[in-house]
User: Fold these one by one.
Assistant:
Number 1:
Amino acid sequence: MRNHVPFGSICTLQNGRAFKSSEWSDQGTPIIRIQNLNNESKPFNYCNFEVEARFQVNSGDLLFSWSGTPGTSFGAFFWNRGKGFLNQHIFRVDVDEKATDKDYLRHAINSKLSMIIEQAHGGVGLKHITKGKLEAIEIYYPDLPTQKHIAAILNKADAIRRKRLQAIDLADQFLQSVYLNMFETSTTDATNKAQLGNLVAIDAPMVDPRDEQYLDMLHIGSDRIEKGTGKLLEAITAREEGLISKKFLFDENYVLYSKIRPYLKKCALAQGTGLCSADMYPIRPLEGKITREFLWRLLLSDEFTRYTESLPTRANIPKLNRKELEAFEFVNPDYEKQQQFSEIVRALNSSLVKFESSANLADQAFSALSQRAFSGELQLSA
């Protein structure tokens, strides 16, 4: 039984073809680009001419993306979507299946991603690793039965982890369905029309983030809000960010809306007290007129996006000014019905906190299990 061996000694890496955009077609054989590896919603470009057999990919092939953004693009993936042509910046990983289990190899090389990214060259946002450096990465390489045993254990752990993440993704879809089911039919009703400016206040004070009382508050910029979902991403404090210009001071009564590029749909429910960029509107719903949770989903809705798209743009960066925001007219549903929706949102968000905590634990458990597996601690049971 061998111990640790160079990755390149147990596989052959076939790089993809450099397809030019002028060669793309609307039909033919799919060209597998990095964006297609881990996101089935990304559309294909196609090739309608013959390509060398060495660039062909079929379901079951193991592919490795060796270029892109660290944390999202690098990694090994199984291809399961039929015949395709391999684009540049992706290796097809070919092995002798009598000696090497491809599923094991996928987990093994993915366990080395931190090391691979460290050895990659390029800027902060886009990195590449050379074929030689990737081939030199050493991995734990037991006999075939042990490989299959380890792969089976990791597959089960990975399935649990993925289910946790899927539950989080499905939560937003569920909430969108609830919103449409409760309020979409009323959008064509001519009664109860209202302008947003009569239901909300944009009254958050501007403060100096260098003042001691604000230095350790989290700063929420538009880049800290996930587009489309309204999820708040990890943020850092005013002190850590070295802020010097004035910011809005908000609390848990506000909705935070990014006025830059409205089509990105960046709107979040404020969590606690913090600071937000001047490129954001902290919007406070008026009691008894509109609920915070309904306002949040309204600003994320297609109806509001269509309204912003109907407005004239300014220069190269579309920007929604305060007058335009307040002028948005819509059917304001019964306040009691909005409260019912708000209760659903709060209950779901409470569950999501538990889901995310569970997902983090599952990630940690999978990482710990991988470390054990590829240090030789997981052996085949007798």
Note: The chain is about 35% helix and 20% strand.
Number 2:
Amino acid sequence: MKTVVITGGTKGIGAEIARGFLSDGWYVIIAARNKSGLAEENHDNLKFQKMDVRVEADHQALVKTAFNWSGSLDCYINCAGFSQWSQIKNVDETFWNKMLDINLKGTFWGCKVAAEHLSSGGSIVNVSSLAGKRGSANNSVYCATKFGVNGITQALAKELGPKGIRVNAVCPVYVETPGLLEALKNPEAPPKGQDTAKYLKEFSESNAALERLPKGNEIAELCFYLSSSKASAITGQCINVDCGVLPQ
């Protein structure tokens, strides 16, 4: 049986990814700062571990748990992230450091530790964003982190390829999770104070080729595919899951 580690796996997109792997019988280790959401459910093949993605040693502890529990590590998914819009004039060092530390450094440490322990055939999947492909107003710091995640993904695909380790990223557009809906309430976010449900509906109808937004389980299905042998020739890719918002 295979084992996957998922940071930020207790809620939102991370929890959807975890459920996808659980349904296929994998050992699933989800990690976050607090035990909540999926971590409070009972599943035979699910284990929760408290961690801070900004700390490299916490990633090492996750891998140790994986080997002690199941004897293997087959996929490492960096999903933990932080999103908040801010005009550049309001960005201070605290905001900058929080965003960079969680989204970029946290992903990098996960990749580094996974690279040390994955064997040939193993896979790293980074949950990036469409914001890693194009800039948007009041979103400069978040975009910087996600462009960085995509850069790490592409560079490590080249570096780890000779070891048989594949590295890819998934780049969702808006996915309606509690975290996103809360972030969109910020007056500096795109809705600018208007109803978020109305904003998302209008956004999808005017921007998405399919006139809808992706669901969390659709992100999960791509992550699962990228972890499988069916994607054995795919590495270094940052794949949009956006219902056609940004055709490439």
Note: The radius of gyration is 17 Å.
Number 3:
Amino acid sequence: HPSFMRSLFFKIFLWFWLAMALMGIALLAVTWTTRAEPVVPAQRAFLGDAMKQNARIAVWRWQKRGKADVNAYLARMENKARCRAFLLDAGGNFITGPTRISSDAGIKALAHQATKRDEVEFQISGVDLRAAHRARGSDGKTYVLLASMPRSILSALRVEPRTRLLRIGSMMLVTGLICFILARYLADPVVKLRHATQRFAAGDLSVRVRPQLGHRRDELADLAGDFDAMATQISSLLTAQRRLLGDVSHELRTPLTRLNLALELARRHAGQDATPALNRIEHEAQQLNALIEQLLALSRLESGDKKPSHVSIDLSQMLSDIVGDSHLEADATCRQITVQAEDCFVEGIPAILRSAIENVIRNALHHTPENSSIEIRLTCEEKMALLTVRDHGPGVPEMALSEIFRPFYRVDDARDRPKGSASGGAGLGLAIVERAVTSHSGQVHASNAADGGLVVEIHIPR
């Protein structure tokens, strides 16, 4: 698989394996070329037969075709068998020479000894194996074929090709197993750390890596410990933030209730001149109350508290109820809501799901211009319910599309602050939508329409 071949584990394994395999091959090559091995009978017989045959052919070529032909024949022997061969006369003179070994006294002795009998004579000199054999020409004269070859050829003759391949294969298998274990040992903590990071990014703040590494005490274990410390700190901060958000929201409810009571008392005792100011106070109190309700809703969704069990929900009926409640607000601002809905049932928590849909529709009403429409469409697929809400407002910059579902995120004044409003929203509506949909294993996605406006799509598994 391409991803496996790009992984750290595969790279570590491959490089270690290649390094050890090359080291083993080099060691074997050095052993074959330097080990002082005697000429055993099987090797002697094989080399002897070859020397006898080549000696007869070389003498025949010398007598029938001359020096150039025999030189060409001996050159082919060297190319094919790594064997340097020379033809000498009975007095030890090089017919195909001279050569650098012509002054070697051992050569003279070997050639002289070969003229005395029909057997092939062998001699080991340093890293070379030398062999000599006599042959008689048609004119009755005696000639000697002398051959010098690397001594490593003895190992090649002693070990069959199948045996050599078996040895190399065994060495590759053993080194491969060792490198596999080593690469796994080095890469396994990285893989566990990566999986933990993915789970942490998905919202599982309880994930920890160090306990999974056992008794390791290396740098990777230290890295896992640092990750756990970071995760603990972030988890504590987020928990404290959510608790503070919920506590503050609850605590604000009491003074807000008192403010509303004081406002009613003020209306009874104030004159007509105070009515605009009191209306303004009432409006701001309502805005503050709506903000507190949103904060409490977000806090409940993020608190991780036990939620009610899922029940079957008629999504089309829920959408019809929400749109019916929204018509009053839409008519007051000369906006229209058009709905196309199929019958669709999903499993979920009605209050949370209703909050998500209501916030999307309210967000669209908040940003679409007067005398325009909001288009809502509910389609029921085999495994997924798809709710699409589209407004005709200014849309959202492409760079901000993935950010608008974060709590308290506000794009800019053009999008966030409707015409004639003193202040924009708090940036909580779509955050509540995202948390509610995610709690139902769904997804929410925002995009800009080609002809303007924002399109929000909610996918809920059936």
Note: The radius of gyration is 46 Å.
Number 4:
Amino acid sequence: MSHLGFYLTDNKNKTIELPVAPEEVGFAFDQDANFSSVINLGEVMQMGLSKLRQIEINFIVPRNLKTPSYITAQKKLKSAYEYIKFVNDWQRSRKSGRIVVSDTPFNLAVEVIGFEYKFANANDTEYICKLSLVEYRHIESKKIAIRKPIKKAVRPKPPAQKAPPRPAPPKAVAVGSTVVVNGQLHIDSYGGGPGQTERNATRKVNIIANGRACPYHVTTIDGGWRGWVRASDVRAI
């Protein structure tokens, strides 16, 4: 039978195995979801990206690491206090480490967000520990150097005649644009299911379907869904 070990690696790349394999470990894998109401359709859901995965481990650390027969670790630390100190130091560093469960595909970069240990049930022979971990995602920023332009000698030019100012082009409509709508709402971007007519209504664009008869889906300013409208019925402000 293969060995199932729970290994923690701290911010200094030091790795330990929990002395006793936990009876139960919780892994939470959640996804963002946005629920909204659509005219003549009802409630709909838009799936988002995955949330940070969370892990909760409840385990025990015997105070005497020599005698208990239920120790599962292949390699033990010298004392129970070293396990407690390892997690405390890792948490105080505020840096990422890693959790690995042997003989499984589970291998995740994590940070410690909670750790507690105690004696329970009048039993002082072992520490009852609770470790809370959250997935670590690396965010990398790049520094861009801006080069100063080389100054060149410029000969003076005769003053040019000023051209009459051109009218400003209309603002482009994009997702998140605030617009004024004057036109009929539809249930889909193909122009189906005509509904109410908007007149000088201030709305926000939350979906764009280019090439459709009604390419813009608009909402109220606070996010309430209204419907799809023609491009000619929308003006960005």
Note: The mean pLDDT is 90.
